[in-house]
Automatic annotation (TrEMBL):
It comes from Schumannella soli. InterPro entries: ADP_PFK/GK, Ribokinase-like. Coiled coil: none annotated. Pfam families: ADP_PFK_GK. This is ADP-dependent phosphofructokinase/glucokinase. GO terms for molecular function: ADP-specific glucokinase activity; metal ion binding. The keyword Kinase applies.
């Protein structure tokens, strides 16, 4: 059976490590990591071939407070690093995490998967149906690292070393995943789209071969022809393992999606500059500038302070934006296990005061083009001792789709 909400294109098995600064400090000593190396990694990302390379990358992200997704050239680097920590097995991928959030509210979906194993069969709830392109079982885990604000790790340099402190909570993803790198499409995808009302496209960021990418995009464009008139296509961006691949995807999907979603990091990466996320005029200019790089008439950006959309009839997504920030806040507060009761409890919480000011100012700004609109909703004011930062963007997408599905 397939459902009107089809989410793809790939899912993952995730190894979520339990944050332990003492383990990181021990590894930094054993590998003789210096603060200069960490600083250099922030400016120019090096390849990840060994456990040491991965450690330096984690420390660099920690010091900036930024999140990100990186390709590890060997699975051994991922597995060796994870072996030092307590680990929880979960499911990931934008479509899968979005579907899991929706399932918590009783909203079914069909997932397009590129790999399958007993972890996936065990952890997918009954609300989620799936189709899969894999011909046999396999598992290539993604390493998920989440750190809280204020997390501290001391590295060498003598005289007591240098302390790296996280200014914000965030999450990191490291992977070497051949099925998602190939991203083969199921022969059943076209049939699944025949009766779809919404199709979420994501996952191309893992691909690294241009010829394979072009072939997959050809297949996807053909499958999109099976969608009914009026079906909504939502393209959710992500950190590309090979940045040059992003432009190839966007050039092929241009005009085929109605909404192009991204987070604050992806927005700033496109622009090549930092953006003051609480300055409404600066954000409005950023969203106007990024329009040259997107695939859809409506651009949707989600951040820790607000979610916003710009484009023709953008205001019709106001409730969807609110559903997204509510779903993401519920996960941030409580982790896995979203329920209608937990979702409703989040809705009753206070909003972020500066987010409220931003949303009002942003929505009042005139659009850059005739016939377009700007809309923003504030995120919630959350003070959580041990927040869940993994999968917040994916969960936001689930909240958007759930709100659209409920009208």
């Amino acid at each position: 059976m397939t459902h009107p909400l089809v989410l793809g294109l790939g899912g993952t098995v995730d190894y979520e490590i339990v944050w332990d600064a003492a383990v990181l400090e021990r590894l930094a000593r054993e590998h003789a990591v210096t603060s200069a190396e960490v600083a250099a990694e922030r400016d120019a990302r090096g390849p990840i071939r060994t456990e040491r390379d991965l450690l330096v990358s984690v420390l660099a992200f920690l010091g900036s407070g930024a999140g990100g997704e990186r390709f590890a050239e060997t699975s051994a680097a991922v597995l060796d690093f994870a072996a030092h920590f307590e680990t929880v097995v979960t499911l990931g991928g934008t479509g899968v995490r979005a579907g899991l959030a929706m399932a918590g509210l009783g909203i079914p979906s069909t997932q397009h998967l590129v790999s399958i194993d007993d972890n996936v069969r065990r952890l997918l709830p009954p609300e989620i149906d799936w189709i899969c392109s894999a011909e046999h079982d396999s598992v290539d885990p993604h390493l998920i690292v989440q750190f809280p604000a204020g997390a501290r790790v001391r590295v060498g340099d003598g005289d007591g070393g240098v302390e790296i402190v996280a200014p914000h909570p965030n999450r990191l993803i490291y992977s070497n995943d051949p099925p998602n790198r190939d991203l083969r499409l199921s022969r059943d995808l076209g049939d699944a789209l025949r009766h779809a009302s919404l199709f979420l496209v994501s996952g191309f960021n893992s691909m690294q071969d241009e010829v394979e990418l072009d072939a997959r995009l050809d297949e996807l464009v053909g499958a999109l022809d099976r969608l009914p008139a009026g079906a909504l296509v939502l393209y959710e961006d992500a950190g590309f393992h090979v940045p040059a691949m992003s432009s190839r995807v966007r050039s092929r999907l241009a005009g085929l999606a109605a909404v192009h979603g991204m987070n604050e990091d992806e927005l700033q990466d496109y622009l090549g500059r930092a953006v003051d996320l609480l300055d409404a005029a600066e954000v409005a200019q950023a969203l106007d500038d990024v329009r040259a790089a997107v695939v859809a008439p409506v651009v949707l950006v989600h951040t820790k302070y607000w979610a916003a959309a710009v484009g023709p009839e953008a205001s019709r997504f106001a409730d969807a934006l609110d559903g997204g920030v509510t779903m993401a806040a519920t996960r941030f507060r409580l982790g896995d296990g979203i329920t209608p009761e937990r979702y409703a409890a989040t809705q009753r919480l206070a909003r972020h005061a500066r987010g409220v000011d931003f949303a009002q100012a942003f929505s009042a700004l005139p659009p850059a083009r005739p016939g377009e609109e700007r809309v923003a909703v504030p995120a919630f004011h959350l003070e959580v001792e041990n927040p869940t930062t993994i999968g917040l963007g994916d969960t936001f997408v689930g909240g958007v789709i759930a709100a659209l599905a409920r009208g």
